[in-house]
Input
Amino acid sequence: MPIYTEKQKDYEWLKRHQSPGYVCDTCGGNIRVCWGGAYGIDCYILACFNDVNHTGLRRDFALSPANIPGFNLSDAGKKRRKKLEQKYGSKNIRAVAKYEGVVSLSRSMAGEILEAIWPEAPAAEKARAALLCSTQQLNPLMKHVFLIPFNKDKPNESWATVIGINAKRLMASRRGAFSYIDDTPRIMTEEEQVKRFGSAKKDKLVVIVKLKDPQTGAEAVGYGEWPLKKRAWDNSKKQYVESDNEPYGTDKGNSMFNMATIRGESQALNRLRPGDMPQGIMVMDEAIAEAASKEGIDDANVIEGEARVLDETTGEITETTTDSETSSGASESQKEPVKEETGHESSGQGKEPDLLSLEFKNEGEFRTACLKHFKLSKSQTDKEIPEFDLSNPGQRKLAWQTIVAVYHKA
Ligand SMILES: [Zn+2]
Output
């Protein structure tokens, strides 16, 4: 049997699923739509060039050059820099433009970039994001990592580190290629939902994402969901009013499908590359994250990590996925954006702000503080932060943020 026939999917669907976008999942060869007469099939078929009996199609993930750190940007560089300057202000960005396209940022380099782009973000969040950049080879100048304020300029303002979905794909692809199979991402049919979950979630949009490593044959499935309706208190009507649960950034191309898909794909990537993905970090579409990192997000526009949505009936946060790794948000208050760990110790942000705001007149004071607060000897400290010049006040500050982020346990 061919991969698909016109009787299973309509002709236009078959046309959209041929090479070069898709390849045969059996052999990786090209697939095309042709008339099935030669094979005794009385309609159009989608079949492998190599063998009409091959089944399955897949879409191989390929990074665009701009997403690959270290890609030579010499030509495109000027244009990109101009864009960056418009975005972040030329003075700030000129200082860090040299790091554009750098593969392995040190914590201090990443810290400088984060400082240039988000000077107003809390030091602990910047230190944590810098650590993420250096350990995972990510670069904020390449839209891999964002700092996003929640409830900006309000008393309950707080910040979170977010990675773009392309950065997550990049990390996953470093372990080898992966592909989307079974025509995913797509909305799960009710029948599929009943089969998988026991019942259909009629109040949610559910998206399924199936990934495969063509080299090992390993497959991983992720499910993402998004509540179709939201309830908000209407003070003039003195009652709850239900409305479509459009996510933040709908005016910028975001959608419920997009939100559910990113959740599903993120879960599938965690499962395809267990142990290689940073845990408990929100993943967002880059365009949406970029806008959010500038404007901030209100609690009213809940755009949380994979693990939670608001229960429309009780207003409480419920678990939405079966991904045990991202379950830590379940008991948190609705008012607090997700505070999760990078896999390293907590930065302790908000718990003991005094520690972070300590300032040191010289290297000696810095070393005394390392010993006093974290029992770090001189040689241990040097091992931890070899990249910082401690005689430089700015570098000393970054070094301290890093030490606190790594060693301060909440
Ligand atoms: Zn084939």
About this structure: The longest strand covers residues 204-212.
